[in-house]
Amino acid sequence: MSIILNNPVVSVSPHVTQLNNTTSRVMIDVLISLLPVVLVSIFFFGYLVLVNLVVCCVACFWSEVIFNSVVHKQSPVWKNVKKSSVFSDHSFAVTACILALNLPTVINVWGWNIQDGDSILFSLDTVILCILMSVFAIVVVKMLFGGLGRNFANPAVTSRVFLLLAFTSGMIAVRTNPFFGLNLGLDASSGASWLGLVGEGTVLNSTTSPKVLFNMFLGNVSSAAVGETSVFAIAIGYVYLVFKKVIDWRLPLVLIGFTAIFALVFGLADSRIEYDSVSTVIGYTLAHLLSGGLVFGAVFMATDYSTSPNTFLGACIFALGIALFTVLIRIFAQWPEGFSFSLLLMNIATPMIDRYIYPKPFGYVRPVRSSQ
Amino acid sequence: MKQNVKHKKPKSFPIGVHTIDNKLSQFAPIEFMHAPDTVYIAMQQNIGKPSLPVVKPGDYVKMGQMIAKASEGLGANIFSSVSGTVQALNVKRPSTSGIANHIQIKNDGLNTQHLLQSLENPTPDEICQRIFDSGIVGLGGAGFPTHIKAKVDKQVQTLIINGAECEPYITCDHRIMLDYTSEFLKGADFLAKCVHAKQVVIAFKNRDRLLESKIKDSIKQNKLDNMDTMSFDSIYPLGAEKQLVYSVTGKKVPIRNIPLSVGVVVANVATVLAIYQSVVQGKTCYQRVLTVTGKGVKEQKNIWVANGTPFEQVLQFAGANMQDTPSQSAVGNIVKLIAGGPMMGYAVDNTQVVTTKTTNCILALTAEEVNIETPLECINCAGCSKVCPMKLMPMFIHQYGQAQDATNAAKYGAKDCIECGCCSFVCPSKIPLVQTIREAKKVVQKYEKTTKKIL
Ligand code: SF4
Ligand code: SF4
User: Fold this and answer.
1) Among A365, B234, B289, B394, which one is most buried in terms of CB atoms within 10 A?
2) Under 8 Å between Cβ of A228 and A296
3) A238 has pLDDT over 90
4) Distance from CA of B424 to the nearest CA of A (A)
5) What is the overall mean pLDDT for chain A?
6) Are residues B6 and B129 in the same domain?
7) Which among B222, B252, B281 is the end of a domain?
8) Of B222, B255, B281, at which residue does a domain stop?
């Protein structure tokens, strides 16, 4: 008798790896962390959010599948379900969720809606645009650049910017809210958000009262996209991601911190606003942080692996850039969507940051230049 | 005079991974295993060139007698681990690094020993000569000839004995320190004398409190007042040379340099015991303590094994599953056999590979212990660069190495990788980074050779 090795596996060390740490696990964690945001969005904006979400998911899934089978000649998914890369990582779902949360409930371009009085029950435009966005995000931004991990920019944010430039006028985050019909004290059905007011220069000091700020924190305000409304829900997701070590806890905080600084500086410099006390200045800064896509983007989009720098120092530069451009665009360009643009910009700058900012090896000594 | 180490509160090198410990054989005292009927002694047991045989087929050799002498440069003598007749030279057998030359010796079972003269109050030069004569190399796995390390040309402040044993599963050093405490300490003292070290620090993981206090007591009893112990947070790779030097002394060893450049010498526990045995008992380096462990064997043990024993015998001794025909589903089947630890060891596909001086562990892993997964694309999560103890960027080395871009691979540190495996360990995409980094190293070397430029 002897010892027989059954199909012994010979591979390079290490021979054990971290259990439960796989790409799909990472993606599932991100999905879980998005759950509070999704729920809160549905709570505030109604079932249309869910419709968008499902449409985006289905569209993203099929774009990836079809792309893989056409371009990469992978055997079509219906023949080989388990082995398909779509199933092995769940990244399509992450893209779809972030994309859906980055959209308003209704995008009214052609007016193909089913309406009941004033409230829109179903919008065919939105569904069509969701599909378009998903295909754009998956095929153009992600797959054409080499798939997962190779995309040059965050697919969701690129789509959003694309949509924004194409169909600005039609984007409305209508608060249908047919299930709950709650009104938590602030009339939020109007389209103008706080950032819209900043852009138009009609900021009134009273708009940043503690009550308004608190509503902003909870999400009971109108916003340009459904996902970014509730800072509270995003914070829960952030805690989960940090707890699971999916993201570096420092990056979102650094980004928000930088934004606070710039908002403060430019806010003080902005002659359109009159400050009567310190509290208005603070209120103004806080309102900047709590509104728009900043917090949502800082937690879920700026931390996107492939489009953010790989070193902490690099990430700080990245955050600095985003914060600066966000505030500049918000205040001076009259465009409340500052965050999306600046994130896209810094996404594109990321390879360059990684090129110049990299750690020195442990025990690095500057090579002595031989004198000539 | 006792000198204080710089750090007040010793802190381990902060970067690394927390591995599962799995020290299954921790409580198994060191046993003896009889040498098999035939041993095959490898001609390459250390870094450097293979050693040169000095016996002919038919010669009678004693246990501990030299059968191959050190080649020029980095070399070490090799000794017979049994008494008996040399049957053949240049026997080609599988080894951890492909097919290699072995000397086949038939064991006569008499164990007639060939001992060197024991040294009383040896001078540093005598110790150094003795280390060379006994063919002692770094027994921790690297196999760097110790006599070269011991020939210091610089003031040595600290001798660090690496008792951290940060690799999972392996327990041989731990057991040596427990079972041979005073021998081990004397060996450390000899080495300290040899390198003129001012102080000796024995480094532990802070999980090994009991062992540490035992060593402390023994140091007091033996009145070795230049010795001290230090314990650190258990993080892998605490025991890696440069990281250990930093943990103990707070000094950074410059890249591509040895610890001696900051006045430190690092030695392994098993090496130190071998020095004691050769100085006091005159035993050459022909056997070693190794750990045979993993769920693939029934009894996880620490054993003295003769150099040149096929793994099969060792596994049998530890009660591995024996069978005549391969069966797919049997529980306890070995799916991966590793010479060394799970993080840095070499996987072998053949139980006929033999033990060498540097085999500190034979690890028989079953399917439940290894997770074999297909690599996916890198998602750029930077997980690997966060845990790299050399502060490199493994994903870029991987990427540029595959693209044959030597300049960029070197820029992100291909040449400085210590192959500790932390990066592959944490990679969620299960990319075999160590493998691709090795390939990248070759790309860089080739580039340097062809262009004669040092990157
Ligand atoms: S790159 Fe090298 S030194 Fe860094 S973690 Fe990977 S194997 Fe270890
Ligand atoms: S850990 Fe793996 S997936 Fe993450 S950056 Fe490194 S190589 Fe890529």
Assistant:
1) B394
2) yes
3) yes
4) 7
5) 79
6) yes
7) B281
8) B281
Q: Which residues from A are below 8 Å from B255, CB to CB?
A: 361-365
- CA B432 – ligand 2 centroid, Å: 10
Would you say the CB of residue B409 lies under 6 angstroms from ligand 1? Answer: no
Lowest mean pLDDT among A277-281, B209-213, B322-326: B322-326
Residue B349 has its nearest CB partner, among A1, A8, A361, at A8
**H helix intervals, B153-303:** 172-179, 181-195, 209-221, 241-249, 269-276
Tell me, in angstroms, the distance from the centre of ligand 2 to residue B23's CA. Answer: 28
- Any idea what DSSP says for residue B452? -
Chain segment A320-358, per-residue pLDDT in tens: 999 999 888 887 776 767 888 899 999 999 989 988 888
CA separation, residue B50 to residues A263, B38, B63, B69, B76 (Å)? 68, 21, 21, 9, 9
pLDDT digits (tens, 9 = 90+) for B325-335: 555 545 557 78
So where are chain A's domains? 23-356
User: Is pLDDT above 70 for B132?
Assistant: yes
Q: Which chain A residue is nearest to residue B258, measuring alpha carbons?
A: A363
* Mean per-residue pLDDT, B19-46: 87
Query: For the domain that residue B268 is a member of, what is the CATH number?
Result: 3.40.50.11540
Residue B31 C-alpha, separation from nearest chain A C-alpha, in angstroms: 22
Instruction: State the complex-level ipTM.
Output: 0.82
Contact flag B336-A8 (C-beta cutoff 8 Å): yes
Q: Using one digit for the tens of pLDDT, what is the confidence trace for A193-204? A: 666 666 565 555
B273 and B406 together in one domain: no
B59: which residues sit within 8 A by CB, 6+ positions away?
B85, B86
Residues B406 and B257 in one domain: no
Which residue is associated with the tokens 């080609």?
B92
Pick the closest to residue B309 from B83, B57, B35 (CA basis): B35
Q: Is residue B47 part of a domain?
A: no
Cα-to-centroid distance, B165 and ligand 2 (Å): 27
> What mean pLDDT comes out for the span A27-51?
89
Per-window interface: B 351-380 vs A, CB < 8 A = 351, 363, 365, 369-373, 376-380
What is the rounded distance in angstroms from the CA atom of residue A93 to the CA atom of residue A65? Answer: 13
Asked whether residue B70 is domain-assigned, the answer is no
**Domain extent at residue B423:** 383-451
> Which residue among B255, B321, B379 places its CB closest to the CB of A306?
B379
A35 confidence band (pLDDT: 50, 70, 90): very high
Distance from C-alpha of A215 to C-alpha of A290, rounded to nearest angstrom: 10
Q: Which of A91, A146, A362 shows the shortest C-beta gap to B391?
A: A362
Measure the CA–CA gap between B112 and A156, rounded to whole angstroms: 77
- Ramachandran class of A42: left when φ > 0, alpha when ψ lies in -120 to 50, beta otherwise: alpha
Residue of B nearest to A303 (CA): B381
Nearest residue (by CA) to ligand 1, atom 7, is B419
CB distance A17–B427 less than 8 Å?
A: yes
Interchain proximity B426–A2, CB inside 8 Å: no
Taking residues A136-159, what's their average pLDDT? 85
